[in-house]
Amino acid sequence: MLSYPADGNQQCFMLEDRSFWFQHRNDCILAAMRRHPPGGPVLDVGGGNGFVTRRMIDEGFPATLLEPGQTGAANAKTQRKLSDVICSTLDDAGFPGNSIAAVGLFDVLEHIPADRAMLASLHEVMRPGGMLYLTVPAFDWLWSSSDVYAGHFRRYSPSGLAELLLDRFDILYSTCFFGALILPILVFRALPFRLGFARRTGVLTAETEHGVKGGGMVHLARRLLAGELRSIETGRALKWGTSLLCVARKKR
User: Most exposed among 53, 62, 142, 177, judged by the fewest C-beta atoms under 10 Å?
Assistant: First the structure.
């Protein structure tokens, strides 16, 4: 079972190429991946339109997109020009046990009610020592109408995510990121939601939040996030942010 808006992939597709958020997330994911490289092709599970998959391939990491949504899979195939796209859920794809070298799970786990069961299914199909790269939204106190509309079941604390993973995975690296967005998300999403007067997606439009038209605030955000990226590139773990990034290895 997956909780996700019916038009979610198309909405993201209209934002991704011009969004500082999607671009910075890609930068951080690839920085962590370069420090902890996969031992083979990456299966990008629930990877939507293939925005991350395309970046991995462009940087020399072979990758396949596994996306259950027909719109996302079609966008990945025709617009992102991905050759390896599987339109299926993980369960229906029927991967043999111990067959997947590495898995990407980027802002997917929060959409699944049984997150522990999902990780167990991934663990079963991954090779011993296989790498898991994942991102999730951080901290319950940032919960807002945007989480509700996006189909999130939860946000994660660093300790909560670690507890979830450690049964089956060794954590190699974990960090918060998007630290520069804590105050804006608190002011424009979380507080209005708690006060009961925000519309379903918050105070600002998605286009404004993602900075698709640029402007001074977007330039400032990019400058602040550039320092965060340098920390991740050197393997430093950051304590605060609106998202979590984790690299883990399947226990043998």
Answer: 62
Please report the DSSP string for 39-107 in residue order.
SS-EEEET-TTSHHHHHHHHTT--EEEE---HHHHHHHHHTS--S-EE-S-HHHHTPPTT-EEEEEEES
Residue where the block lists tokens 């450690």 = 166
| DSSP assignment string, 138-200 | B-GGG--HHHHHHT-S--B-HHHHHHHHTTTEEEEEEEEE-GGGHHHHIIIIIHHHHHT---T
- Percent residues over pLDDT 90 in the chain: 79
Residue 141 has pLDDT above 80, yes or no: yes
What is the rounded CA–CA span in Å between residue 82 and residue 214? Answer: 28
Provide mean pLDDT across the span 60-80: 97
**Residue 3's pLDDT is what?**
82
Give yes or no for a contact between 53 and 65, defined as CB atoms under 8 angstroms apart.
Answer: yes
Tokens of residue 53, six digits: 């998959």
Task: For the full predicted model, state whether its pTM sits above 0.85.
Answer: yes
**Beta bridge mates, 176:** 244
Q: What is the mean pLDDT of residues 203-207?
A: 61
What span, in angstroms and rounded, lies between the C-alpha atoms of 191 and 36? Answer: 37
Whether pLDDT at 201 is above 60:
no
CA distance 113 to 94: 21
